[in-house]
User: Which sequence fits this backbone?
């Protein structure tokens, strides 16, 4: 069994309520998870990935950060993470994000800006680049918060179509299936987020096509998902315009 699966079902670690790829996991949660691994488990790739995440941080080139600094319009903008795993802030310069977890982003930027501003009040939102392709209105890659509910990603990509088949939705990473269709259906039914699905930048949600028949049921499903979306459109508009 892959290490990630073992971590999710092992009773001795059930209290951790976190896994290696959870996007908004805290440093304490990841360190606790790593400390709880047996020597044998630590040789698995997921154990290596966990240690690398603690050392390298979460941010990769191409990620984006929405920064809002009260009273400073120059610093209130969307910034792309560069090849050096940092962002370039106006009048401040490079701000490294090497070793920073997503859950640490706001505190990290507050500490950096406190050297230039008196008691800065900021809001920082990290975005991951997710592909939504196949049977959606506007297939392509989008920048979405890790806390985005999986169903909201469909609406951000223009919504489902009459030919969308929710029984044929898969999540892939580097061309390999990461989450099978049945698990995706369960995630949709339970309102799980991208974070809870352990998604990261570059992952793709592939929406399959419905065969002839069953269109009425598909339209009902489309309406149900569309009706659940309240706020995702504003964030997408801010990043893409």
Assistant:
């Amino acid at each position: 069994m892959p290490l990630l699966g073992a971590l999710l079902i092992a009773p001795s670690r059930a209290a951790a309520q976190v896994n290696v790829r959870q996007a908004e996991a805290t440093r304490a949660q990841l360190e606790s998870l790593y400390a709880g691994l047996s020597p044998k488990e630590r040789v698995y790739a997921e154990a290596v990935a966990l240690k690398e995440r603690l050392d390298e941080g979460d941010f990769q080139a191409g990620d984006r950060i929405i920064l809002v600094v009260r009273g400073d319009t120059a610093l209130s903008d969307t910034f792309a993470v560069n090849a050096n795993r940092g962002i370039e802030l106006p009048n401040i310069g490079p701000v490294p994000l090497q070793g920073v977890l997503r859950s640490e982003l706001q505190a990290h930027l507050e500490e950096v800006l406190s050297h230039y501003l008196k008691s800065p009040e900021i809001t920082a939102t990290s975005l991951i680049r997710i592909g939504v392709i196949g049977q959606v209105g506007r297939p392509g890659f989008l920048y979405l918060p890790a806390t985005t509910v999986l169903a909201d990603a469909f609406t951000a990509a223009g919504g489902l179509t009459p030919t969308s088949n929710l029984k044929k939705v898969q999540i892939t990473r580097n061309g390999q299936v990461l989450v099978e269709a049945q698990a995706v259906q369960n995630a949709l039914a339970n309102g799980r987020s991208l974070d809870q699905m352990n998604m990261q930048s570059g992952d793709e949600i592939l929406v399959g096509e419905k065969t002839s028949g069953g269109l009425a049921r598909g339209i009902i499903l489309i309406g149900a998902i569309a009706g659940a979306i309240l706020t995702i459109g504003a964030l997408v508009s801010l990043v893409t315009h």
Observations:
- The first helix runs from residue 3 to 9.
- Confidence is low (pLDDT under 50) at residues 1-16, 227-231.
- The beta strands are 64-69, 72-80, 86-89, 93-96, 122-134, 140-145, 164-173, 176-179, 204-209.
- The chain has eight helices and nine strands.
